[in-house]
Design goal:
This protein is an alpha/beta fold. It has a single domain, classed as Hexapeptide repeat proteins (UDP N-Acetylglucosamine Acyltransferase, domain 1, 3 Solenoid). It has 4 helices and 20 strands. The strands form 4 sheets. It has a 7-stranded mixed sheet with strand order 3-6-9-14-17-19-20. The termini are far apart.
Length: 185
């Protein structure tokens, strides 16, 4: 029988209160607390902490605290990416952020899902679907990316947009739900 962690990593329904997952979450909370308490000009210490916390942290990447995540090891950030204050990565499933991505303040990357039926929710079952942010994407301030969404390379998502479905490469998308308003050259 699979452990709850194995079920979570496989994208299956799982219960987050599982002791192994609780330990993983507690580790992420300790590290994010340290990140969020570190002098923001101490780039070397922040890099060390993010490298320890995340599944991958590319060269030349900067994430400005505060930062929050569920587990950390499910988030991979490419090279030369910049995330402004308040990034939330609910990384129950994988969150993959490409190279040269620009992320505005208070962006939320939300992989978690919950059953629609009342009893499984009462029983605390949940699941998740991965998020993929392509290279050279720009997410404006306050953007929310929903579970299972992929955003193609070179795409710009306007401030406050809620991305509920995949966006192709090289477009501008705005609104809630986000819709493509133009193609980029």
């Amino acid at each position: 029988m699979k452990s709850m962690r194995e079920r979570m990593l496989a994208g299956e329904l799982y219960i987050a209160d599982d002791p192994e997952l609780a330990r993983d979450s507690a580790r992420a909370q300790r590290l994010t607390h340290e990140i969020n308490s570190t002098d923001p000009t101490d780039h070397a210490r922040l890099r060390e902490l993010f490298t320890d916390l995340l599944g991958g942290f590319g060269d030349g990447t900067e994430i400005r605290p505060p930062f929050r995540c569920d587990y950390g090891y499910q988030t991979v950030v490419g090279a030369r990416t910049f995330a402004n204050w308040g990034l939330v990565s609910l990384d129950v499933a994988t969150v993959t952020i490409g190279d040269d991505v620009q992320i505005g303040p208070n962006v939320q990357l939300l992989t978690a899902t919950h059953p629609l039926e009342p009893q499984p929710r009462r029983d605390k079952w949940e699941a998740a679907r991965p998020i993929v942010i392509g290279d050279n994407v720009w997410l404006g301030g306050g953007v929310i990316v929903c579970p299972g969404v992929s955003i193609g390379a070179d795409t710009v998502v306007g401030a406050g947009a809620v991305v509920t479905r995949d966006l192709p490469a090289g477009v501008v998308a705005v609104g809630s739900p986000a819709r493509v308003v133009r193609r980029l050259a």
